[in-house]
Amino acid sequence: MSEDAILAKVDRIHHAQKKYNIFISTRPVNDLRNQILSNIDDDRPLTGTLCAIKDNIVTKNEATTCASAILKDYQASFNATVVELLENNGSVIIGKANLDEFGMGANNTHSFTGQTLNPMYDDEKSSETLLDKHKYVPGGSSGGSAAAVSAELCDFALGSDTGGSVRLPAAYCGVYGFKPSYGRISRYGVLPYADSLDTVGILARSLRVTRKVYDVLNQSDVKDPSSICDEVRSKISKTVTRLARVEDTEKITIGISKDYLAKGVTPDILVTLELIASKLFESGYTIVPVDIPSLPISIPAYFATAYSEAASNLSRYEGVERGYSNIATDGSEDYKSFISKNKLQGFGNEVQKRLLIGNYNLSSEKFRDNSRKAQAIRDRLRNEFNSIFKMPNALTVTDFENAEIDAMSVDFIIAPISTTKAPKLEDLNNKRNVDPISAYVNDAFLIPSSLTGLPSISVPWHSSGSEYPTGLQIIGQYGDDQRVLDFAEKVG
Ligand code: GLN
């Protein structure tokens, strides 16, 4: 990249920042310039690429805030494993992308730095301001990451997906959003929302770039106890090879579950799914209905799990050892009121609400009713998915390497990502005032693969007659990430 091209790029980043509020911080121009120039002539896999990192993933060059006032001054002394891998492989970070505070949200409305706007709906890209009629939400919680990719400020971005936060913003912003199997990509240095669900995901405008980044990040990491070890990775690869051999003779089978077509899906989205299914059928794929009866109860299971884990994770931000602190200088405060003041001033409303519910769920009276029940639903859901997929589940089958591949079952499941395309900011706020639950409606499509750790991708899909794309979700068996990407390529 020439000096001029770099400066033009920096200009575009600053212009976009003013208009859409995509970043919480951006790399200083000189650092960016020097890093790009110093990488220019090598042949590492990601040389020449620029990326954005969600601001809940630590970098040692800038603050990591999780979009929360409680962490507004937090500066990590180390890079997350994913950041090390990207930089070692030649990518240059342009900035830390906005999100819903600690990943809690679906529209990027809960950030202490304000709302990110969706660049895809901007009809006058070069103008300085965005008219109200063009203000659409980018989705969340990785809305800044999706917006940065959609506005072509970088080649790819990292987000985190706990219950859909990579896939939903990808669909709203017209880009690919890939959530790999839980444990494939290291979480070391990702500030947790809900550890048993948090998964680093990749947003990009093409599958070629998605794959390149995935290949770099798909590694075991001893620093992350939930990272899949090499032995299991190699068993999975062997099984995928066996599966590919079966596929020579058997057609790929796609499952569609009516349980995914929850109330509230607009006719647009249903028609889009129907079009995709008939296109796949015409191309020779077998389409079969599948039953996942526990899908409707996955929402309470998700919220019981995620809120409880969040309550435990976020308790560390008390303003003594970690997080925002506002101590009275006259020494008049007792410890308890000092801590609660820090938390009330540091956390936003959505986070406070979730912590309250999470702590309630963890209380001794409620633990059995809520938290344990949520675990049971999670197991049930995993068994239901296992009974549908051809490939056995490496986490639950004992002799996984020799386990039978059930040729009558399905390779992938397809489902919508959301009930509608990206909402207008104004409509979203009006609706939320009347019906606060509406903000959670899309989670129904997204959380089943989060609760079960399954690889899922959002593929931008243009149905005829619609100016803007929506997302098609492809879900595969645990560990079957490469084939999910292969299939996305065939469909996209
Ligand atoms: N909408 C979900 C939530 O608010 C998704 C969160 C996520 O994936 N980080 O919990």
UniProtKB/TrEMBL annotation:
It catalyses: L-glutamyl-tRNA(Gln) + L-glutamine + ATP + H2O = L-glutaminyl-tRNA(Gln) + L-glutamate + ADP + phosphate + H(+). It comes from the Eukaryota. Residues 5-485 form the Amidase domain. Keywords: ATP-binding, Ligase, Mitochondrion, Nucleotide-binding, Protein biosynthesis. Its EC number is 6.3.5.7. GO terms for cellular component: glutamyl-tRNA(Gln) amidotransferase complex; mitochondrion. GO terms for molecular function: ATP binding; glutaminyl-tRNA synthase (glutamine-hydrolyzing) activity. InterPro entries: Amidase, Amidase_CS, Amidase_dom, AS_sf, GatA. The active site is at K54, S141, S165. SUPFAM superfamilies: Amidase signature (AS) enzymes. GO terms for biological process: glutaminyl-tRNAGln biosynthesis via transamidation; mitochondrial translation. The keyword Mitochondrion applies. Its main location: mitochondrion. It is an enzyme of class 6 (ligase). It holds the Pfam family Amidase. It is found in: Mitochondrion. PANTHER family: GLUTAMYL-TRNA(GLN) AMIDOTRANSFERASE SUBUNIT A, MITOCHONDRIAL, TRANSAMIDASE. Allows the formation of correctly charged Gln-tRNA(Gln) through the transamidation of misacylated Glu-tRNA(Gln) in the mitochondria. The reaction takes place in the presence of glutamine and ATP through an activated gamma-phospho-Glu-tRNA(Gln). Subunit of the heterotrimeric GatFAB amidotransferase (AdT) complex, composed of A, B and F subunits. Belongs to the amidase family. GatA subfamily. This is Glutamyl-tRNA(Gln) amidotransferase subunit A, mitochondrial.
